[in-house]
Fold this protein.
Amino acid sequence: MRIFPLHILLLAAPFASANEALDVLEGKIDANSVILPPREVPEGEEAEDGEGSDGNVENIIYLPPEWAPSPLDGLWSRSILYDNAANPWVQQFAVTGQYDVIASSGKAETELSGNTDLDGTRTRRARLGARILAFNNTEIEAMGEFAGDTQYRGVERLKAYTQVSQTTGVTYGKFSPNYGTESRVEPSLSPYPYRGTLTNMLAPAAALGASIHHAGKKLDYDLGWFSSDYDPEFGSMGGDGMLNVSVSGSFVEKTGESLARTKWHADYLHNFDAGRSNPQGYDIAGQRSANGNQLIVQNPAYRHLFSIGLKTESDNSSFTGDFQLAKGDTTVWGLSLGATHWLVPGTLNLVGRYQYAGTDDARGIVAAPGNSGELRYDASPFFTGDEYHSFYLGTNLHLYKDSLLLRNGVEYMILNDEVGNSFNTEAVTWQTGAQISF
């Protein structure tokens, strides 16, 4: 069971800056979860934007509920091989990784062309890497991907983040641009067995680039430049590149004794190399869909990509919403709504998600139900259409924090093909899996 020390959070506010900075560097908390202590409002001065009130309270610390102590704490702590804050060169060295296996059972029924078996078991993620804290201002991450087909296995990320001032930092190397709500979540921390269909279609894979982050008083700003030519290894600054602009912010709401934090973002990606490069990282050109054996002539080429989303989390529940729009050779839009709730805090989590995607173009949507999941992997069989709906409901049994869990869930998919050749498809899959991460 997890511990919820809300009163401790308020008492600890004066010491938040130094202690939380250390926790962020050690990977114990997400950097975006740190909110500065509240400003005292002098007597006679009105509070601005809810400061000091019981409604929207700015600059109050929100930290996720702590996990209860476990006999496995000592085992997982061994992933930190070196830890010495006094060393001026290297403060910490840790190994990181994830292993995720999933099995699915079900079938897809397609009008005019019959049924497709979706049964199967596969390793979805097998990742191994390292994290280094150095020079008291730099975090270096390296991660290798060993699952998926040969087009995806390789260097998943190799990046560094350097804090150059109290409000400004630079990320450089191979990493993913800021795009979408799901892309901001580490795969090992996602409550769902795989990312949503629209995210899989639109979000660029990790690429060589650089991004400047500035934390303002109210908003955070990111400006980045990335290679538009996907490469499973380290890659190069090939192609005309991609521009990435992102604005984000957060606020805390206080109701009684409970706190809830909402983080929102607005992202824009411009691919100057649309039609000549493949920043999404999947290659379905020349392949045929499972519904009607329809030929995919070329990979989708998106020039403008937009995403607006938010995530709200409290002690026992969370909610995420994300709207995405992409325009290029084809136009696709849609949204994803997800929610989680702890049935047994720290142990049993109920998760649900609804997804919608639409387009006016034949075969503009590509979906891979079952354990295929993400198009960057071996996503056969996949299905195409012009209107997509998906409903997922499942439970996650947390045997040790977010690091050791069992998943079970059922997904119902509707993929209409009215603009194409009417190969409308419905699919129901039962999915079960296990994940270990460190």
Residues 3-55 have pLDDT under 50 and may be disordered. Residues 187 and 323 are 20 Å apart (CA to CA).
